[in-house]
Please model this.
Amino acid sequence: SSVHAFSETGLVPYDYESPGGYSGGFNNGGTVAQTGLGAIRANPAMLAAEKKYELDASYMWPTANSGREVYQVGAVDSVTSSLAIGILYTGHREEYKYWKVLKEQERATAFLNSAATRRIALGTAFNFSGFSLGLGGQFVEGTLMNGQSTNGVSLGGGAAFTFMEIFRLGGSFENLLNENIKEFSPKIYRLGASYIAFENLSL
Model:
């Protein structure tokens, strides 16, 4: 849906792409291709697919002076215990400007400003003999199309199965129970398969 909504500009708000490179690049098809921070939203089950401890911080500047700057901080721990845990925070340095109060010439790129003020995503997963189950959720704050502020919590989850150590199958869902925040956190369902061609590289 984001491809059609922003087809004229060729861009989408940066935090819409924040689940991770695989997920965005494969049009949400990276369901079983990514682990670590990208898995918290795309498929929480993948948090337990590999043993790792990951800390990450990033800052994204908009191109062509459109949209707001986005920053993310997160951590994943699947080493300390059999239960893998991940947390990802996405925020903006600048305040959101409601599009109706902007000048006419400013409205052309107004929708590149994400209406979501902040996102806090949590995920947890357990792996048993190559079969992983994960559960996640997001707390999101933002501004609706009518200018009112809102916040809400949505539910995510997924499953993944690794066999012969090189093939993975799985599926996930994101943003169920999203009634208050559906304008900037739509429901997403994913199914995918991956082939691990080389160590740390899946297709």
Remarks:
- The CA atoms of residues 121 and 138 lie 4 Å apart.
